[in-house]
Amino acid sequence: MGNERVIFSNRFDRPTLEQIEKEMKNENYDDNENLMSAEEFLDFMKKNRKTVPNEKRIANKDKFIWAVRELSETYEIDADLIEDDDGYTASLYMSYASYTGYIKKLLGLIFILSDDFSMFKVKDNRDSDLLMCFTYHTHNVYLKGNRQIMMRPDIRLPQPFASWSNSL
Question: Mean pLDDT throughout 113-141?
């Protein structure tokens, strides 16, 4: 102990909110005349959005559901799992902590299975610090006939990960 050295370290400049607002004004991003109202947007989506079942994704949905339920029930983590017309969304109310062992494996499996991931600061659950949201799509989504890329079927798990996820 005590013989540590930095292998890698990066810090990036991030624009401030004021800088972003100034750039938006300079680029005329604040022109609202072409924006749709919320009602117009929903109507546009209803008319132009189509979902097509993806049999492989539907067949594997139980792994995602199991991992979310197992994590929640085993570690008493507040969770919501919601089904909608194109898949599932899992919301996990987590605490700031160091996670190891089985809980880390379950989280890893959820990360691997999900198509996207978001994190938010929790505002309405006083017992949690962080809201982690994972989406698992069971359908391909098309908007005006163009497939929306939400999952990467070309990505294959390296063999150690594939066998690890089956051993849970």
Answer: 89
Selection from 99, 123, 128 nearest residue 111 by Cα: 99
SS3 59: helix
For residue 135, the surrounding DSSP H or E stretch is: strand 130-137
**Chain-centroid distance, C-alpha 11:** 24
CA 43 to each of CA 7, 13, 36, 49, 84: distance values in angstroms, whole numbers, following the listed order: 52, 40, 10, 10, 18
Determine whether domain 50-166 maps to CATH 1.10.3470. Answer: no
DSSP 8-class letter at 118: E
**168 has a pLDDT exceeding 50:** no
Model confidence, pTM: 0.69
In 3D space, the residue among 135, 77, 130 whose CA is nearest the CA of residue 102 turns out to be: 77
Confidence of residue 152 (pLDDT cuts 50, 70, 90): very low
Please say whether the beta carbons of 141 and 148 come within 8 A: yes
Position 135 scores a pLDDT of 95
